[in-house]
Design brief:
Elements (H helix, E strand, L loop, with lengths): L3 H20 L5 H7 L6 H21 L13 H5 L3 H10 L2 E4 L2 E4 L2 H20 L26 H13 L5 H24 L3 H5 L6 E2 L4 E5 L5 E5 L2 H16 L20 H15 L7 H16 L2 H8 L4 H8 L3 H8 L14
Antiparallel strand pairs: 1-2, 3-4, 4-5
Helix pairs in contact: 1-3, 3-6, 7-8, 7-11, 8-10, 8-12, 12-13, 13-14
């Protein structure tokens, strides 16, 4: 069970983070990123670095008293001198701004994430007593409104699998590609729909991670944990067809990845997203379906079948069951309605007169 893909991905994230620390952030920031390295993923740290860089660029370009100062020259004392209003003004700025000639927009979740990155860094230095005043302490986190959960219904699942299988509705150009990728794409879409794994987990699966004897496979969760999941016999049929073709190619003996691109390399998350978009745009043109929406589809089906939110949380790999509840609270009424038919008041129904 190789972890090569995830090791390489982490190495690339670390390289990007190192470049930002060297070129785009004040030197004192390095201590923060080292300090949080034991309890954050490389991707989390990289995203924090992007957001903190945007914040420091705003300080130097938009706050008058810092004009003429470079980001590399920012000090902890400069951060301490900021007012809560200046933090709030930054959040207002990032709602819509121009970067490298392109318009960048941040909704409530984007602004909340950016505030979280700044707050995390300042709290770290406050704890180390390098910063004594925290200007973010009195800044309210943007209120997050619940987003509508978009998922496939039962008949839409069948329609999408039919599109993948037959190519109906695709353009002529797409159909030519589909002739070469049909078996692989069926395995990918059915595995996403039948197990609810994340797209990053899917692309990380190696050939040796799959066991058809007990219909199981190993995935690497967010944070690096390796867990065993199971697939149904229906999914096994699609997966086995692809697996046989994949393992029969002697030229690919040295390539560990299960799912490959047409270039015979490990498929990327972007490629999987494009595959899902291609077929779903035909199957459900009014819904914007992504791999994450297929994950929601599986979670919904599982919750409706079991009525157990803890089972859904465990299978989906949610560390906090409240995350699961937020996603599936909308279908709780289905479970309650079903419960009304489970209890009989009489052991024997009354006879008609």
């Amino acid at each position: 069970m190789s972890k090569t893909y995830f090791n390489e991905r982490d190495a690339k994230n670390i390289e990007k983070l190192e470049r930002i620390l060297e070129e785009d952030l004040p030197d004192f920031c390095r201590e923060y990123f080292v300090g949080i390295s034991s309890n954050t993923t490389t991707l989390t740290r990289l995203n924090y670095a992007y957001d903190i860089r945007t914040f420091f660029q705003y300080i130097c370009n938009r706050i008058v008293r810092f004009r003429g100062k470079s980001v590399k020259d920012i000090t902890p004392a400069d951060i301490e001198s900021l007012s809560p209003f200046e933090i709030e003004a930054y959040l207002s700025y990032v709602e819509i701004y121009r970067k490298n000639g392109e318009i960048v927009k941040n909704g409530e979740r984007g602004k909340s994430r950016k505030l979280s990155a700044i707050r995390s860094m300042i709290k770290y230095f406050e704890k180390k007593q390098i910063i004594r005043y925290n200007p973010t302490a009195s800044v309210d986190t943007p209120k997050l409104h619940e987003k509508e959960i978009i998922r496939l219904d039962g008949n839409e699942i069948e329609t999408m699998l039919d599109v993948v299988d037959t190519g109906m509705g695709l353009s002529q150009r797409q159909q030519k590609y589909q002739e070469n990728t049909r078996i692989r794409d069926l395995a990918i879409v059915s595995l996403l729909l039948g197990t609810g794994i994340r797209v990053s987990e899917l692309v990380g699966i190696d050939v040796d991670d799959v066991n058809f004897d007990d219909l199981s496979f190993v995935v690497t969760r967010k944070g690096g944990a390796r867990v065993i999941l199971y697939f149904s016999e229906e999914v096994a049929g699609y997966l086995y067809d692809y697996y046989n073709i994949r393992t029969a190619d002697n030229e690919l003996k040295e390539e560990p990845a299960l799912f490959l691109s047409l270039q015979k390399k490990r498929i990327t998350t972007r490629a999987v997203e494009n595959i899902v978009k291609k077929y779903s745009s035909v199957a459900t043109p009014l819904k914007h379906i992504t791999p994450h929406k297929l994950r929601s589809t599986f979670g919904t089906q599982l919750y409706r079948t079991t009525g157990d939110i803890y089972v859904v949380a465990d299978v989906l790999g949610h560390k906090d069951v409240n995350t699961t509840k937020r996603h599936y609270a909308a279908i709780t009424d289905d479970i309650r309605r079903s419960a009304s038919t489970k209890v009989n008041l009489r052991a024997t129904p009354p006879k008609d007169d």
